[in-house]
Specification:
homodimer; alpha+beta; Chemotaxis protein chec; DNA-binding
DNA sequence: TATAAAAAGTGGATTAAAGTGGTTTGCTTT
DNA sequence: AAAGCAAACCACTTTAATCCACTTTTTATA
């Protein structure tokens, strides 16, 4: 499972290193590369195997409703296959760089089945929001269920 | 169960010794290492076995709501697998050192299912707060239930 | 209780791996 | 043919894993 945060840089070419602790998971997940998709103003990284499951799920969504068709084309349309180079970096396509506003400082965050790529600014904001969430009854309830 | 408090140091590389009385518990809990997570401005150490339970609970949280996705990414993002070296020390990742403000003097505290890592300053403050809590009605009620 | 032996705890040196930035080469596209 | 881009290559810096030496504390035993 993907866990932990790392702080890195994205270079002018749009290359981002995959942290060492993620590499085995990626390889075991179907190859030397990942699928990148957009969500929550950051990028979600999936192993090939897990992505296949997601695609199957997307296929099973009804296409009757225009909203579901829109969801499908935005989510799948925004997904890219990114393979690793010899230094274990992925090249992030310009459209995804723009979406997540990746410029210089970036953050990689493991979230179990997948990991996320954030700009440093947005990640800091996300942490601030989390602090605010800690006075939210619903959130506190979920935390208490974790058994910490 | 983890119990008792020990005062130690963290060296320049970020290494921290595991007290002898914790070692058997850790080994019995699934291996020669622990999972470290962030909470309450200190670090929580879990055995692998217990961490697996927590992780299952995290996976069962709904991901519909943005607040719950945030909870997951901040909590799992703050979790690291720390294995012991031959001297039974763990290396604490820089992001966790920063979070808990570990610099030189640190405190390890057993709290039954897990143990905690504090900076000495924060630990002392925590004890002061405990003194204040002893005039709190709710806290006194819980204490009376303990059967001391 | 004195002493030896073992275990716990600390610090530093060495080596291997991770991470970063840049250059070159060879495609593709217009 | 030239421009743009990505893949591959290379050089370098930083960081983490491993190993070793030593001090302190605990335990065992005479």
């Amino acid at each position: 499972m993907f866990r932990g945060v790392s702080f890195h840089t994205i270079d002018q070419k749009g290359r981002v290193i995959i942290p060492a602790r993620f590499r085995g998971l990626i390889k075991d997940g179907g190859g030397d590369g990942i699928m990148l998709a957009t969500m929550d103003k950051c990028l979600f990284g999936y192993t090939y195997d897990y992505w296949n499951i997601i695609e199957q799920n997307v296929l099973s969504i009804s296409n009757k409703d225009e909203r579901y068709r829109r969801l499908r084309r935005v989510f799948i349309g925004g997904a890219f296959d990114c393979s690793c180079d010899k230094q274990y970096r992925i090249l992030i396509p310009p459209s995804l760089r723009d979406y997540a506003e990746l410029e210089k400082e970036i953050v990689l965050v493991g979230v179990l089945k997948s990991f996320e790529v954030w700009s440093r600014e947005k990640w800091d904001m996300e942490n601030d929001k989390m602090k605010d969430d800690l006075i939210d009854e619903d959130v506190l309830k979920e935390i208490s269920k974790l058994g910490l």
